[in-house]
Specification:
The protein is α+β, with helices and mostly antiparallel strands and 183 residues long. The protein folds into two domains: 57 residues; 113 residues, Ribosomal protein S6/Translation elongation factor EF1B (Alpha-Beta Plaits). The protein is 51% helix and 24% strand. It has four helices and five strands. Strands 1, 2, 3, 4 and 5 form a five-stranded antiparallel sheet that branches. Helix 3 packs antiparallel against helix 4. The chain starts with a helix and ends in a 6-residue tail after the last strand. The mean pLDDT is 82.
């Protein structure tokens, strides 16, 4: 290779490599940063709109919020029936089946003007992902439900150690019922 060709190639490489870096790495990064800046601006505008809507909205009273957290019904028995339906639906949605549900005696809540804790005991078999989904549904919804007791016994089906382990469960789940003071 002649010295002129060698120098020309070196000069082309010296100028081409930085240009390649600029067009191959820096410009796409700048475009991505601009896209992210636009997304941030859009989200900030959305937050501002939500804050304006919150200030215009009528605030819910503490009583309304508390009432939505309680079991409904005209009696303790209807509150227990609602609790059974809620738990049965949560078990089904989690991918399992209720084997039995037993209504337990209600317990008065001290300092709550007639409110009672309405407990049920649920027996079921589930794998660990289903148990996790069930507990999340029970504890994150409204009305507020509480897992008062959980007893579990692992069941291994077959001899394959990679096979999913099922768990036989006994859960005591409760909600709060407040009788209406209205005539």
């Amino acid at each position: 290779m002649s010295p002129l060709v060698s120098r020309t190639a070196a000069l082309a490489l010296a100028l081409g490599l930085p240009a390649l870096l600029v067009f191959g790495a820096v410009l796409p990064m700048q475009e991505r940063l601009q896209t992210l800046d636009d997304e941030i601006l859009g989200l900030e505008q959305q937050i501002t709109r939500f804050q304006e809507q919150l200030t215009r909205a009528e605030p819910r009273t503490l009583i309304e919020i508390a009432d939505s957290a309680l079991l409904d019904g005209a009696s303790e028995a209807s509150a227990a029936a609602q609790l059974q339906d809620l738990v049965d639906r949560a078990v089904s949605e989690a991918g399992s089946e209720v084997e039995s549900i037993r209504v337990e005696p209600t317990r008065p809540l001290e300092g709550r003007d007639g409110a009672v804790q309405v407990p049920i005991t649920v027996e079921l078999t589930a794998d660990m992902p289903a148990l996790q989904r069930l507990l999340h549904r029970v504890e994150s919804g409204t009305p507020y439900l509480f897992v008062d007791r959980l007893a579990a016994r692992a069941l291994r089906r077959g001899s394959d150690p990679e096979e999913a382990v099922e768990v036989s469960l006994s859960l005591q789940i409760s909600g709060v019922y407040q009788p209406s003071n209205e005539p």
